[in-house]
Amino acid sequence: MATPTLEDVAQAAGVSVSTASRVFTGTAKVRGDKHAAVMRAAEQLGYRPNAIARSLASGRSLLIGVLTQDISSPFYGEVLRGIEQGLEGSSYSAIFASGHWRVEEEASALHGLMGRPVDGLIVLGGHTPDERLAAMAAKVPLIAVGRSVRGLEDQCLRIDNVQGSYDCARHLLELGHRRIAYIAGPESHRDACERLQGFQRALADWKVEANPSLIVEGDFLEPSGLLAVESLFARGALFSAVMAANDQMAYGARLGLYRRGIRVPEDISLVGFDDLSSSAFTTPPLTTMRQPTYEMGVAAAEAILATLGGAPLPTADFRVQLMVRESTAPTHRERQRLSPLDPRPAGPAGNGTPSPASAQASEPRPQDPPFPGERL
């Protein structure tokens, strides 16, 4: 049986060859009913458009370059899945390259992507200087995810890391925790710095003095969370809760606590950040801050397609959401203080920043006896 051609598809769909061609190349809009007829005919005939021919006809590569940091990362994996979904149904395909959070590797990966060449570029985080990204944006449409780029603010999709981290810390403070160990990300990461800032701001608003000995830097990977907990115990640090700058480090911290026979949340509460898909299935399920990674990937793809089509960028509002699960609980002292008739945790009402008055009102309670040693 002969391989079906574009002419065969056009004849079966009852349209001109040029109209069928526009459907597959995406060079111009085609009326909905004609578009559907062409796609239906192509499927019935088993027609597969030639990517090289489409590229030559349109004058485009029909490729979207995506600079990620680590393809194996569950966080970036969700974003990439969203990008693929967002491109589905278009004429474009994504090609990926990893920078591994190293400026030199990012530069090499970007050079490789631009050399394909690509019709558009999506950049996920990273350390590439704003000036270099701005120069690339002058050559091809560019969308940045998870970071800001000076001069390209309208082309950046990101969340409020400060507020998200603040809300995580506030959750622990409302449960009565005062000595909270914090596992930070690398200080060279903007996200890590912003999340540390949110944590410290929450402590300040609750009149809790920040203790540098309770802050350990990790690298956003599970082993560093384990090492952070070991480091805290080795230095004799006393704490009733652990807050990690991402879920992967929280997983490592949970293992470290388990190996010492420390129960979560009965002895120590644990909080992460990201809400990776596996966080709802850890033991116990992890309390964490959800950021819409998949949705951001879809939005990035839609934004790059809109730019390539000359359409205005779609508006996107990404908000974080605290997912309270079984890894956090009130301190023992706080449980004893609460009345059975009023089981709500202490702390300011509402979702905003606590007022100085409400923060001071919680202070007369004595400081939590830290773990290990005396139970809380």
TrEMBL record:
Domain called HTH lacI-type: residue spans: 4-58
Source organism, top-level taxon: Bacteria
Keywords for this protein: DNA-binding, Repressor, Transcription, Transcription regulation
Record-linked Pfam families: LacI, Peripla_BP_3
Xref: SUPFAM superfamilies: lambda repressor-like DNA-binding domains, Periplasmic binding protein-like I
GO MF terms, alphabetically ordered: DNA binding
Region of interest: Disordered: 327-376
Bias type Polar residues, positions: 352-361
Biased composition regions of type Pro residues, renumbered to the chain: 367-376
The protein's name: LacI family DNA-binding transcriptional regulator
